[in-house]
Amino acid sequence: MKNEIIKLLKELLKYKTIKGETQEFKNIFEFIKNNINSNLYYKEYNFNNNIASVISNTNTKNLDIIFSTHIDIVPANSYNFHEDKENIYGRGTIDMKGSVAVLIKIMNTLKTNKKVALFITSDEEIDGNCTYELLKIYTSKLAIVPDGGTNFNLIKEEKGLYRLKLSIKTQSAHSSQPFNGDNAITKLMDIYNEIITKYPLPKNENEYITSINLSRLIGGNADNQVPDNAEMILDIRHTSSDSKSDILKFISSLNKNLEIEELLKGAVFKTDLTNPEIQHYIKTCENILKRKINIIGCESTSDAIYFSDLNIPTIIMNPNGYFAHCKNEYVNKESLYTLFKIYKEFIEGDNNE
Predict the structure, then answer these.
(1) DSSP secondary-structure letter at 58?
(2) d(CA 83, CA 81)
């Protein structure tokens, strides 16, 4: 089975599934449809011109387990992949076509009376609207989202997402006479420096604090002019200790001329570790991995928030891999097979009535 999972992953990696590549998305969903067993139900949806598919072992919309995944990736300089004995490297390997390959094989081989479905969406890296819309149609007793952390750590909390556009207008001047103007770009840079003084950037993944990243900075109209306009995009990932309202209040206080537009909001994800199904999942993992499961917070945000917002108990756990959205992104081959075994045992084990 491990070789079959790796083979399927390599096929999925051939598709350049980034925003705007409409035909690539159509092709990959057609490929997926052609690689599921005929006894499964396949339903395709389109939300805001983004495709989503649901693969299930039942025709009902009331499910026992929903696996939630996505096949869209963020842009890269290269979409080629390579491998060594242990890992496969390339955009989308850990985030998250590796897990998609595992779950297609799970659905094809599943033997259970439980009602199970697999969501595969194409807009998680944009806003996750497909999952939000699917949950108006489907419901479940439990969700599993293999889209956070690494090395089979269980995620107890994912940071909330808050994306802002900050704009400011000042006074232009000839670039040789900066004293006659007020530089809008440097004004925003000063504001950002004040922001990260209040909310210092984390130094590593173990420092679980709110982070505010300056994603884009745009301004000015001419090379020989003091810019009188500028805007910056802030991508904020906040813990439950820092609310969106408190962050917005602080930023708003920095300059009375600052215009702030909210672009995107996502809730903080938390899981109920006392839930019996989640406890059962942890025990299944520990039996297969032969070790205790680490329970940690995760700096990223995923579609798991849409399940937790509906009070659906949700598990977030990734196989072994790292550097999502980076040029050296990878997933460990053996860990994909381990994930397959965990899912099989969890669903088909002693709780199969």
Answers:
(1) S
(2) 7
